[in-house]
Amino acid sequence: MKRLFTPLVVMVAAMFAYAPIAIQRAPYESTMGLVQKIFYFHVPSWIVMFTAACICGISSAIFMFAGRKRADRVAVAAAELTVLFGLIGLITGPLWGRKAWGVWWQWDARLTSALVMWLVFMAYLLLRKYGGAGSEKLSAVLALFGMANVPFVYWSVNVWRTVHPKTTVVMSLEPSMGWPFLLCSLAFVGLFALLLASRVRLEDRRAELDELYLSLGD
Amino acid sequence: MGQGTRDKGQGKREKGEGTWLALAAIVCSLFVIGGSAQAQPPLSEPRSNTEIVLKQPPSPPDGFVPAGDLLAREQLPAAPLVIGAYAVAWVAVFGYLWSIWQRLGRVERDLAEVSRRIAAGERR
Fold it and tell me: What is the model's pTM?
């Protein structure tokens, strides 16, 4: 990852620099107009949130069953990113909804389940911060529950009646809308990889510091 | 006598203030009641199956359709929302990057300090 870091930074920066041009060139959606352009940042932020939640859950499982401390550090980093990108999705969504639906928020299946999932990962971080000794295992279990929410949130729009657009929207995009969306999605995934690597490095350095403190105590 | 007049005057002032407060409370209550009445239109029972169908929310879109031409006035009200959404995303990402940088800097400083203390202890 160290060798890939700088090229990835350059690539992601170039993608984000070109993204506004691609979004501006994308056609307006017939019923929603300009506000639909929030879609190009809103959906990628959820894609990344789901990815981060799955990484957090899988790493937590590895930590729980194999006892690898490095996996726990990856889980903490991924949980923080789940909360970050979830927050972006939870704020940009109502800004879109205000124009598209006339309301900021609806307590429907998709919005509520997404909020609950975000709250689970908020609880994970709070548990890590204030839970004291032994909170790693407890939070790892919480991360598994958080990850289990991902399919429910994703398919909620197809199973229940909701005002939120269905998942078929992404697959049925016309090329003029599909390319900007793909570009933004890849840029977000790249950004996520960079942030995750940086955050894991912070956890690694913290672990080194803890070991040094212990050796100082001896 | 002077004391009594002052007390009476104070009493009148307090009464006056009380009246104003009561009036303000009534006006505020009216605004709140009016606002909530406007926000929640009275519920009426649907009388027929057609009315039940008409009262259903519109079904969510299955796909996005690009529009050819759009009126300029359509674009204006959405602009602050779109700009706001993009601003939120950027502020969140840069804020988080800044927080990682700050935390990493603190940990590096602590690491250097502890390493220095360990080295000093070994020399002794």
Answer: 0.76
